[in-house]
Amino acid sequence: MLTESLSYVRNSDDWLKNVLIGGVLSLLGFLIIPTFLVLGYLLRVVRSSMRGEERPPAFDEWGEMLVDGLKGFAIALAYSLVPLLLAIVFAVLTGVTANGGDIGVVSGLFGLVGALLVFVTSLAVAYALPAGLASYAETDRMGSAFDTGMLRSTLTSGTYATAWVTAFVVFLGAGIVAGALNVVPLLGTVVGVFVSFYAAVAGYHIIGRAWGEMHPVEMRDGEMPDERAAI
User: Fold this and answer.
1) What pTM does this model have?
2) How far apart are CA 20 and CA 104, in angstroms?
3) Is there a domain that residue 113 lies in?
4) Which branch of life, at top level (predicted)?
5) Which of 45, 47, 60 is nearest to 11 (CA)?
6) Could you say which DSSP state residue 145 is in?
7) Are 4 and 35 in contact (CB under 8 A)?
8) What is the pLDDT of residues 123-141, one digit of tens each?
9) Cβ distance 197 to 26 under 8 Å?
10) Distance of CA 143 to the CA centre of its chain
11) What is the CA radius of gyration of the chain?
12) Helix extents (H) in the chain
């Protein structure tokens, strides 16, 4: 799975063009709109991969891709609300009780417990979010990303767990490479962004492929989402 995902990006004759576009958009992420476009493209990767398509999608239909990215961002934001709220609450509690003495000990405990809870919930979000995005990519309905029945069966599946760990290894490897490239001022940072985009495409391809194994989307490519649900 790991080797196949890394070669997937190069299965298109335009793979270099795709990586260049994706890398440039990632570099321009501070302008906000390019970030949504990159996320929209990654959702397109998930959607095509779950249908068993061997080639990565092209950068086209920009308006549709932007809308897809906006919806994906909204889903990710909703998933992140719990760790975000926990971080805010415990930061306030820690600040209020940070007055030294015994109260200072209470403040330290609040900080420790808060950090642990934020870490655990953030890890849970990182594990569950790709499944939510894949469910949205299949049905084109944002509500499906929060389908608890789907999430329960998917997140406890060995197929999904293996795919998630494999994708994590890809992201981790890219992070190490990007970090090593940072020793070269500016140029290394820029190249690292392109490496990270390449890894993101490979990682989301893994998630899409795993989703296709758990849900036979590729067998019903010509059907509308409502038709699939009725079967």
Assistant:
1) 0.87
2) 52
3) no
4) Archaea
5) 45
6) G
7) no
8) 999 999 999 999 999 999 9
9) yes
10) 17
11) 20
12) 2-8, 15-27, 33-50, 62-96, 101-139, 148-155, 158-181, 187-214, 225-229
